[in-house]
Design brief:
By secondary structure, the protein is α+β, with helices and mostly antiparallel strands. The chain has 2 helices and 6 strands; from the N terminus they run βαββββαβ. The chain has one domain. It is 16% helix and 41% strand. The strands form 2 sheets. A 3-stranded antiparallel beta sheet has the order 1-3-4.
C-alpha cells in the first residue's frame, strides 16, 4: 500500500532555490517523521496538506490518539514549500 504521506527535510524547507516558486509557512509546530522531516498528507508535496499548526497543543493532540513511533513536534520559524505553478 502506497503511503499518503510525503516528507521534506528541514534543510530543504529552509534553503529555497531562487528559480522556484514557494509558499512560506511561518512559525508553525510541525509534525516530524522518524527521519526528522516535515510531513505532508495528500497526493504530492506541492498540493499536500502540511502537518503543522500555530498552536502546539493542537499538533500534540494529533499524536495522542494514535501510536506514531519516532514522530516528534518542532517549531519551525520559516518553511519554504515548493509550489508547482502548473496547478494554477
Amino acid at each position: 500500500m502506497k503511503s499518503k504521506f510525503w516528507s521534506m527535510t528541514i534543510k530543504e524547507a529552509q534553503e529555497p532555490k531562487k528559480e522556484d516558486f514557494y509558499r512560506l509557512i511561518k512559525n508553525r509546530y510541525w509534525i516530524l517523521d522518524e527521519n526528522n522531516c516535515l510531513l505532508f498528507y495528500g497526493k504530492n508535496l506541492s498540493t499536500g496538506s502540511p502537518q503543522c499548526n500555530s498552536n502546539k497543543t493542537i499538533s500534540e493532540s494529533i499524536l495522542k490518539g494514535e501510536k506514531h513511533p519516532g514522530v516528534t513536534i518542532k517549531l519551525i520559524e520559516n518553511a519554504f514549500i515548493p509550489i508547482d505553478s502548473s496547478n494554477f
